[in-house]
Structure formats: C-alpha cells, structure tokens
Amino acid sequence: MADTSYKPAVYKQQGGNKLVVATGGTVDIESGGLFKIGGVTVTATAAEINAALIAGITVTGAELNVLDNVPAAIVITHAAGAANIVNLTFTVNDAAGNPMAKPTFIDVWLSDAATALAITAHPADTITASKGSVWHVNTAACALKLQTAADGVATIVVTDTHKTAFYVAAALGIDPRPNVIHTLIAGDYGA
Prior knowledge:
By secondary structure, the chain is mainly beta. The protein has helices at residues 46-52, 61-65; strands spanning 10-12, 19-21, 36-37, 40-41, 73-80, 85-93, 105-111, 126-131, 133-139, 143-147, 153-159, 167-172, 180-183. The chain is elongated, with a radius of gyration of 24 Å. The model has no long low-confidence stretch (mean pLDDT 85).
C-alpha cells in the first residue's frame, strides 16, 4: 500500500529498503539502463514482453506461487545392466530444473516412433521398477504408470533378449503428450 504522506508517485520508503510505485507512477528504464531480478539481467525488450503476455489474463503473486514445487520436466538417463538389461532413470524436475522433493506420477512407454505417438509393436521381455514403484501396467512390457521415490527419481529395469532399439517416452501425469523422448540402441543393453 502506498504511503499517502509522500507526494511523488515513485519514491524510496524511509530507510531505503523499498522502492514504491504508487498509482499513476511509472518505472522507465532508459536505453542503456539495466533491469535485474535476483541479479539476472532481463534482456527482453518491452515489445517482446508485451508480445508474450496473453491478453485478458491476470495473475497474482499468490497464484504464481502455487506453481512452486510443481513437476515441469523429466530427464531420462540410462545405464547398461546385466546381460540384456538396461536401467532407465527418470528424474522429475521443477521449473527451476531442481529434482522434485516429493513422489510424482509419470507415464512411461516404449515406442518404435521417434515421435512416441504409439507404443512399440515389439514389447520388451520384462519391465520392473528398482526405484519408485509401478502403479499400473497399461500394456505388458510396453507402457506403465510409475510413482517416483520421495526424491523425484524412479528407475526401471528393461530386460530384452533382442536388445530392441526403442524410443523411451515419458509424460507427467498432468499432460498426456510426451514430455521427453530418449533413444535406446542395442549397445545400451548389458552384454
């Protein structure tokens, strides 16, 4: 709330720790001036920022804070296991790129298509979870719903005697589109 004892619409509060822009006030950063948030320079122009806004949508700080610690992305890595086995690790990150500090649901499937728009026609022999848990098998040895462990990480063990080259897809439970697609080749399986 603006302090009405001050006449200017833009002022520094007594003590100098807060800059206030009251009704009718404007912050105008002239050419060559910098605007920083948390020490990071905002490089977008006013026109770019305005173009990125969606007309008619307003949001409060409290509403934006609801997005804190919300799953935003999945990172997939793999490591060869024993003979005919590959271990796939799924790390669910928040929007800042930090691993989630809570269990999260993800959908995982093996696909023959780089777009991952369908499950594979050649299922693996078995798929089990070694970290996190399998909540539901959608299609045997092809597609499943996982819950990560408390650190936002799940690992599945794919056994496939044919060492099939799969596109491994994962999606957050809130969005059915593939969030990430990871490619496996025959050489990724244990010897």
